[in-house]
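Batch manifest, entry 17 of 40.
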Amino acid sequence: MKTISYISGIVFTISLIIVILISSIEFLLYGVPGYFESEYEKNQVLEDVGMEMEDLLDVTDQMMDYLRGDREELQVITQIDGETRGFFNEREIAHMEDVKSLFLGGLSLRRICLLICAAALILLYRLKRLKVLPASILMGTGIFFAAVCLLSLIVASDFQRSFTIFHQIFFDNDLWILNPNTDLLVNIVPEQFFMDTALYIVLIFGAANLILFFVGLYFFFRIRRAGSSRKLRP
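Output type: structure tokens
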């Protein structure tokens, strides 16, 4: 029973951390007010695409709805250099279909992990072994935190190479290689945008893991104190 309990605790922790990671990405892209606008201003993209901020934010909102499955078609008709036209070309649309599949796959993985967390909790409750969770959480968050720190150092040392490897792993074509002279998408989300986004995701994810770590630490010592008290009773 102890082995099953420890495995369940580890599975719960890993699944929960995956949920936190995916939620951190979604929170930044969908939950932080004005994030895209601030990045557009920082990277001065309006001149590159010949658009007003209001029109570009409208395109962005509809693009993000598309990625989450709230919109069937990606194409958005807008004003570019005083001309009414579609924002995306065929190559961009094909690439964003792949991005949408990846994003929706991540959301599906989060739902699966939440179910696994619930199943692990139920099993531990029935086995009366919920007390293994704090230790599992401490171990899991510690390992993930170290892994994220190491990965962050690797990415920071050569972001462009890491960016390329990421796309080669998650995409089986070269549609992600866009031309700034013909593809507006690459102009509104330049390399600096992805660098900032990666940094903020790491910070949000790291903060959430730190909170989870201290919650686990609190209950770990609380269980230890309770166990010590029982041993000291006559």
